[in-house]
Amino acid sequence: TQLLEQSPQFLSIQEGENLTVYCNSSSVFSSLQWYRQEPGEGPVLLVTVVTGGEVKKLKRLTFQFGDARKDSSLHITAAQPGDTGLYLCAGASNFGNEKLTFGTGTRLTIIP
Amino acid sequence: DAMVIQNPRYQVTQFGKPVTLSCSQTLNHNVMYWYQQKSSQAPKLLFHYYDKDFNNEADTPDNFQSRRPNTSFCFLDIRSPGLGDAAMYLCATKTWVESEKLFFGSGTQLSVL
């Protein structure tokens, strides 16, 4: 069974601070995705990373895929209250594989 | 416009009373998934369809059944809901050919009294 552990599980910081969320596994993934989920809604895809070492930026969010494709990080610069939500990483073991393995989630709260 | 639609948004049922949750999609995607998500936890895959091929996860209880009468619709039937089945149920779709991206519905929050 492939497991994705996210850390921290909960994070509460002040508006304007920077933060990093980690997603780790002992398994290799062909691709890894990050989702954000707001209360009462389904997860929404933020980014997909495919190549080991790949870095993608989405405004103030920076995503990195580990060189060995076993881990990933999400860095947020100058966090804003709108960044509040549950952040989920999800890995696919093979391209086109029907199943994603979701991480344990990080609940982020940005305090105005 | 919503592309994956789940009805109802909130469902209350009684212990042991069968309940059906529905999902429809306008994306014509091959693959449809049902996930169970308990409070602040990661979504847990219950089963998925690739077209009409049904794939059950090994640890999905027999209490959970599913139907996919056509490409657009998929149903989750809980035959005898227990208190532990109270959760958000998420439907998602994906096209087999393209990327790994899942399109999620807004979910149905199920309460069991």
Structure description:
The complex is a heterodimer of chains A (112) and B (113). Chain A is 0% helix and 53% strand. Chain A is built from no helices and 11 strands. Chain A has strands at 5-7, 10-14, 19-24, 31-37, 44-49, 55-58, 61-65, 71-76, 85-92, 100-102, 106-111. In chain A, the strands form 2 sheets. In chain A, strands 2, 4, 5, 9, 10 and 11 form a 6-stranded mixed sheet that branches. Chain A has a 5-stranded antiparallel sheet with strand order 1-3-8-7-6, with no helix packed on it. The radius of gyration of chain A is 13 Å and the shape is globular. Chain B is mainly beta. Helices cover 0% and strands 51% of the residues of chain B. Chain B has strands at residues 4-7, 10-13, 19-25, 31-37, 44-50, 53-56, 64-67, 73-78, 87-94, 103-104, 108-112. In chain B, the strands form 2 sheets. In chain B, strands 2, 4, 5, 6, 9, 10 and 11 form a 7-stranded mixed sheet that branches. Chain B is globular and about 35 Å long. The mean pLDDT of chain B is 91. The chains are: A mainly beta (112), B mainly beta (113). The A-B interface holds A 31, 33, 40-45, 48, 86, 88, 90, 92, 95-100, 102-105, 107 and B 4, 9, 31, 40-45, 48, 50, 55, 90, 92, 94, 96-97, 99-102, 104-107, 109.
